[in-house]
Design goal:
InterPro entries: AraC_E-bd, GyrI-like, Homeodomain-like_sf, HTH_AraC, Reg_factor_effector_dom_sf, SmbC-like. One of its GO terms (molecular function) is DNA-binding transcription factor activity. It comes from Cupriavidus basilensis. This protein is of the alpha+beta class. The chain folds into 2 domains: 112 residues, Homeodomain-like (Arc Repressor Mutant, subunit A, Orthogonal Bundle); 155 residues, Multidrug-efflux Transporter 1 Regulator Bmrr, Chain A (Alpha-Beta Barrel), CATH 3.20.80. The chain is 43% helix and 19% strand. Strands 1, 2, 3, 4, 5, 6, 7, 8 and 9 form a 9-stranded antiparallel sheet that branches. The radius of gyration is 20 Å and the shape is globular.
Length: 286
Amino acid sequence: MKASTEASYRQRIARVVEAIAADPAAEHRLDSLAALAAFSPYHFHRVYRAVTGEALADTIRRIRLHHAASLLVGSNRPVVEIAGAVGYGSAQSFARAFREFTSLSPSELQRLSQDHGAGAGAVRLRELPPMPLLGLHHQGPLSMIPHTFRRLAALATRAGWHGRAPASLAGVCQGDPESEADFSYFAALIRPDHADTQGALAVDAAGLTEMTVAGGRYASFILRGPYTLINATWEILFSAWLPASGHEPDHRPALELYRSEPGTAPALCETELLLPVRLPASPPLG
């Protein structure tokens, strides 16, 4: 596929994902989504899978459950109400889908967040060195971040980096994800220490970007479970752990380190969330 055609396909598919994310509870019929992307409905499901790496139904399910997790955190709303808000006809079908995807029931996640699930005992402070990264700036709706990682893997393999040395996947987050206009995300591989010149030239030719994240003190929390719970866990860290920690957020991006191999069952995935922190400045003497 030509680069210009591939970019056009991605932009058209992004419109579909944006529409699903804007109204997760809607029916989202295949023919209407295909029309939104200006593709034939007879072939849309194949084009969608080729561009995104997942079926359209899987995207809809993932977005609905991600939105549900955000609604459940710190909320006393009845589960049946949240089920309807994300497009499920009954609390039973919603609870079944949520547990299959997250290994938690909706009520368990509510209780976890209300009990300050990211409590002081689960968070540790780490001093990290600068982190060299190689990756792509995500473009499009946040729900397409997994697709950016798939594209990163393909480009890194083409450049000869993917699999050259042990590397972890990382996400660099800046801004408020609730306001996509003010939020940026960098999908990356953590570069090995021994980068060679030939590899660097191949990276440049593949269109990948190099970035180094500043070192310093981070609050580290290990999330064991599906990536759907990441945003909800960030909310717990900011609302429950941070105010009681004696620290304040530092002016560095937050990091997500994805520790699991591709293909790991969602319930077994492990993600390290790294919140940059510092001790508060002493107030000026009056």
